[in-house]
Amino acid sequence: MRTHRMLPRLGALAATVALMSACSGGMDSGSMDEEPMSDGGGQTAEESMDGPSDMGGMDDSDDMDSMDPAANLVGAGCADYAETVPDGAGSVEGMAQDPVSVAASNNPMLTTLTSAVSGELNPEVDLADTLDGDEFTVFAPVDDAFGAIPEEDLTALAEDADALSGVLTYHVVPGQLSPDEVAGTHTTVQGEDLEVTGEGDDLMVDGAAVICGGVTTQNATVYMIDTVLMPPSMAEQG
């Protein structure tokens, strides 16, 4: 069989009214005005009451950006996907709420992959619980990628549980890799290496183009790709 290469002080005031009353007879009231009382930590009472001090110059907008599921997307197809699925469970924001197998099932571009990992293509190959049970980077072939495989070859792959499992797990890398750290050679769950090259909108995975990547789910980072990848050992056999 031959296929395309695949798959986030309030300081306490130390003076009391009683103490001030007891000492008022021996103190010059003017001295109380000359120097503001400190809370012992370098802040005056007025400063303490003004609210929290600047915490290292942190900008709340930076935190908001880091929490935005769409902040770090890469790939020329991201804008088209956002237009096609602007909201709901299958949108980029929606996928961030679910574990990866559920998120993929809500993505209209990943219906064949969802069938393959959920046991629909072959009951002996159900990887959903495995994919949802740890952190992964998933290179997810879109439906058009599977559609480019001759039907007889795809049928043969679906009927061979070992081969199907090998192809699918070749698309999965342990740990979540963001777009700025995904380039390089990575050992897949299948056991063989794949290579990610380029950067930004020009990322390639074993020669497959990233359509839209950096899509986060509860436990994974997903890169939608335009070709089904084949493990080197299986490609040689084909």
From TrEMBL:
GO terms for molecular function: cell adhesion molecule binding. Residues 57-66 have a biased composition (Acidic residues). Residues 97-229 form the FAS1 domain. GO terms for biological process: cell adhesion; extracellular matrix organization. GO terms for cellular component: extracellular matrix; extracellular space. Residues 25-68 are annotated as: Disordered. InterPro entries: Adhesion/Biosynth-related, FAS1_dom_sf, FAS1_domain. Keywords: Signal. Pfam families: Fasciclin. This is Fasciclin domain-containing protein. It comes from Brachybacterium saurashtrense. The lineage of its organism: Bacteria, Bacillati, Actinomycetota, Actinomycetes, Micrococcales.
